[in-house]
Amino acid sequence: MPALELIIGIFYLALLVFLAPTSRTKDEQSPWFHVMIIGLPVLMIFLGTNVLLAAVAPSQLNYNITRVEAMAYAIFAVIFAGIAWYVIHKRSLRGWLSRFLFRGGSYDPDRPIHTVAVVVALFMIVYTGASYILLGGLDGIAEALAESQPGLVDIGSVALRFVVAAFIGVGIFLYRDINTTLDRLGLSQPTLKQIMLGLGVGFVAFGLMVIASIVWTMLSSPESISSVNDTSTQLIAAYGDTLLMAFLFAFLSGFSEELLFRGAVQPVFGLVPTSVLFALMHVQYWFTPAILIIFLVGMLFAWLRRRYSTTAAITAHVLYNFLPFILINVLNTTV
After folding, report:
1. How far, in whole angstroms, is CA 334 from its chain's centroid?
2. pLDDT tens-digit profile of 16-34?
């Protein structure tokens, strides 16, 4: 994410959280809060329009997408914008979300800050979808990784976005101090038991990924697998020059993702919706069976967060991210 886009996104989220009233009465909501939260569905429609423009004028925007893909995405963006609009305005829909979709969490249909969380989540799905389409799908993502050769600065900027979003989202320095913020995010000094459980779950998650990948390889055509393999290969090539580089990548991504999804979002949305959102944020696996693997892995991390702490989930996630690099390093050494 470019630096300017990162700053604007964090600033926008901070204003939303700052303006969101702590009370539940609509009469006490700031008019600016209402304007800004409605701005998110507008941005979703803008993203859909931008994809359409990229298909109509590919030479000017240098994107290689078909008009059918662009039209399908534009419809997708408008639908999600409509859902976001109704979440903002229809208490009955928010009540349905509370009773059925988010019943495993603490989602309150009358709390504006929880409405912000839902609308921001919808926006992030649309934003991720735009990235997937504009980059040209899995093949385009792999090619972009090969050309850009991202480094720690790139992964660090994404990690920073997630970490800042997590702390701002739970209201640090607005209605929580440092200690209550850390407690809300599930960050605690890890015990030996939590570390061992985290490492164990990390190995189980990696084993699940390996088994599912083998099954997928046996049941799918080589063409359907090559794109995902190309993307994974480019990621390993970008961050796997040394084990230190690989560990930094594994730590930054694992820490930041767990802090946001399991630490900040899960207590409000619940295990399953958070794991779905977590899977959808991995754009490199869209429209492949691999996204189901990511969902199941997310559920394992979600269980750790609920049963123990976010710290335990971070331990599992970092190991899960790091094991492929260790495996590749061992294979390269023995060959």
Report:
1. 36
2. 888 887 655 554 567 888 8
DSSP string across 148-185: H---HHHHHHHHHHHHHHHHHHTTBTTTB-HHHHHHHT
The residue to which tokens 């470019």 are assigned: 2
* pTM: predicted TM-score of the whole model, two decimal places: 0.90
> How far, in whole angstroms, is CA 176 from its chain's centroid?
24
The pLDDT value recorded for residue 137 is 73
- The DSSP H or E segment spanning 271 is helix 271-280
Model confidence over 269-323: pLDDT tens digits? 999 999 999 999 988 778 778 889 999 999 999 999 999 999 999 999 999 999 9
- Residue 132 near residue 141 (C-beta atoms within 8 A): yes
C-alpha pair distances (Å), 77 with each of 51, 163, 164: 10, 26, 26
Report whether 166 contacts 13 (CB < 8 A). Answer: no
Which residues neighbour 219 within 8 Å (Cβ) at sequence distance 6 or greater? none
CA distances from 163 to 126, 170, 263, 270, 312 (A): 21, 11, 10, 20, 17
* Per-state percent for the chain, helix, strand, coil, to nearest 5: 80, 0, 20
Question: Which of 6, 11, 2, 141 lies closest to 64, judged by CA?
Answer: 141
Q: What is the largest CA-CA distance in the chain?
A: 69
